[in-house]
Amino acid sequence: PFISSFAMFSPGRNWEQIRTTIALDDVPVKIGGSHAGINVGPDGATHQSLEDIAIMRVMPNMIVVAPGDAIETKKATVEAAGNGKPTYIRFAREKSPVFTTDKTPFKIGRAETLWQVKDPQVAIIACGPLVYEALLAAKKLESAGIGVLVVNSHTIKPIDEQAIIRAAKITGAVVTVEEHQITGGLGGAVAEVLSKNFPVPIEFIGMPDKFGESGKSNELLEKYGMKAVNMVKAVKKVIRRKNG
């Protein structure tokens, strides 16, 4: 079965019910959380779910997926329908740029490298619609002579540990990108993996322990530092840390 609502309401408001009636008994219910992230825009802080990844990934038995575009969302929904596990799928409100195709590999639990150059200096590990911004940042950096990997970590739980470790070993530095609180989200999950297996300098792009506000989606992404230009700055900063 599937249930769906604004992410602020499901899983935000009914978290305990999900925990007790779904996750505790490992019941394969799928929860679709829409209007997630800052891009809810005019609806403001009360409806901007920026904590949902954190509260769902701490729940035993729960799979957590944040697709990046419409094609990936369809693939995630179809796979989740048959995976036999409680699964949370995170959706945006705004129309998102499409950066994958029907032929782009997708499997829950497996990250995909979408951008790779020879001798990359940093791995950008991103999820959700901001993967598109990460790809824009990669193009900007390439024109400045800085090579990066862009890894689409659409599944936050179970996170693809081997892909993260491999990216860190190749580059020696990481920037994480998410439209979510930095604390407890993708950045935290990546840091947990690397701190145990291959520590490297990390910079985090996401909501810096703040609530959102009303405004146009693009303006809010700019204000809170989640655009390609901010990722470029983070990459340059983490390179300085790596080389320092």
TrEMBL record:
Transketolase-like pyrimidine-binding domain sequence ranges: 1-95
Annotated family: Belongs to the transketolase family.
Domain Transketolase C-terminal per the UniProt entry, residue ranges: 116-228
This protein's UniProt keywords: Thiamine pyrophosphate
Cofactor requirements of the protein: thiamine diphosphate
Pfam family, one: Transket_pyr
Keyword tRNA-binding: no
UniProt key word Protein biosynthesis: no
SUPFAM superfamilies, A to Z: Thiamin diphosphate-binding fold (THDP-binding) (SSF52518), TK C-terminal domain-like (SSF52922)
Name of the molecule in the record: Transketolase-like pyrimidine-binding domain-containing protein
